[in-house]
Amino acid sequence: MWGGTVVFVCLSTALAATWPLVLHPAAAIPLGTEREATVPLFNLWSLWRTADRLAHGFAHYWDAPIFYPSKGVFAYSEPQTLTGLLVAPLWALGAPPALSYNVALWALLTLNGLFAYRLARALDVPSLAALVSAVLTVTLPFIASLFGVLPFIAAFGMLWTLEGLVRFGRDGSIGAAIWGAAGFVATYLSCQQYALLFAPFAAAAGLVALAQRGFQLRAAGRLVAVTVVMGLGISLWASPALRVHASLGFHRPEWIVQALSARPRDFLTRPATALLGYPPRSLADTGGLFPGGVLLGLAAAGTAVGMRDPQWRRWAAYMGAGAVVAMLLAAGLNLNLAGWRPFATLRLVVPGMDRVRSPFRFVAIGQLFLPILAAVALTRARQYLGRTRSGFVMVLVGLLAAGENLSVPAPQVPIPLTPRTPWTAWLRAQPEDTVVAHVPFPGGLHVSDYEIEAWRMFAQIDHRKPIVNGYSGYFPQARAPDGEAIPTYTRFQLRMAADFPDDRLLCVLDKALGVNRLVVSRDWLNGRESRIDLHRDFLRPVYADQEVQVYSLDAPDERCRPGDW
What we know:
The protein is an alpha/beta fold. It has helices spanning 2-17, 38-54, 81-92, 97-122, 127-138, 141-145, 156-171, 174-190, 192-212, 217-248, 254-259, 293-307, 313-330, 342-349, 363-385, 387-404, 422-428, 451-463, 488-499, 503-512, 522-525, 529-533, and strands at residues 28-30, 270-271, 281-282, 412-414, 436-439, 478-479, 485-486, 517-521, 539-544, 548-553. The protein contains 22 helices and 10 strands. The chain is elongated.
């Protein structure tokens, strides 16, 4: 009975935190603090990709049908495999795409709350205080700011890992170690970046658990063995993606990382979508990192209380220190200690850390510790107020802390009930060897420039033909003999945006990329028909409606010199 109450409260809190999304769950998805629909649409498409490949036994999973003919492109960004599997039945049943996204969002928020509750209970926090910590976890302000970036909603795996390690510290059992390892696997399969950012904190938690066991050899052996097996399992799944990253030399330039590293003032602002405006809201990419005054005060009290109590001392110290360290790491390359930049060192010595673009997201880990520490403070208050009065105070304080951090009404972007349109239905009926290029290509490199590509990926959910366009965390590139990364796709994209139609570009599309259908936006085409007519020996109209004009592309061999493509 109580377990059902916990689930109901967590789900209800998730619905309240995303209000008014529940009023039209099939017609819109949340933006969070995103200014355009590019990233939410990309994440929606990613959910479909996993569901689609599940129906085919995960065949060619990493070779997503964007950036054709590049291989392994699903490894360019977060595949969020576990989340995709969670809602795969909805895709199989033909549910509206937005509903699949929103169910995933609510499920992740609910899981965040449930595993916060479980972690608090593992620390012997009473049920009501643990439930308050669950509500506070569902409404964490940093998570709310990322409603449009679905992988970063999935914080539950980190809490799951900590629960397993807390239980292992108490009994040293192999079952507790396996449970904690399963949580880390869930973290990786939900959000690879969280797994990377959280790994040092998980290792530190393992040391705390071993300290509780007095560093017994038997306990250490169990934990190490389970960790090794977990690492091997993750490596087997990740190896195709890792090979893609290594072959293409993916990394994040230092100037981008520094721009997305937090600054002191960022910790004193709320997300742009916050209900309350004090401290002030921030529109900066790295802003809005204030965790809430009530929550912060409770967490500070919980740290102080826990440090004086043998029952909680180790874990209160771990979480209090972890929150501080996470905030410091969120400063990324902006943190300079007498000429030493810790994050620059991490980029050099920790595999994969050089591919972290946004160090400010370490804040998610720091904020996760706060509700658990708050529950410790509320538990101690129970000793002074008595059971009845403390219950009322817990609920009241919890509602105040959660309400302070709400970001409602949640900004949304309308989504069609189906990706099917007349032109996608026509395209779907074309031969299997059909390869599509959409015109125009984006003329810039900002995420807003790629919103048109994200909508084209949404259309691909219906027509299912490979496209040379696309959007992702990385873009196809090549390696020069000296190892330098060459942004081949970006150069081609900008050339297409500036010079299409052009004989040389048409030759590249046909001979090098295998394109045989051009889907041209009617808005772009208006006024350019005469330019298209100049290339009638390349292009033949085959379909038209009010939205697009489709051309068959067949470049004459005599017009395409080998050097052109």
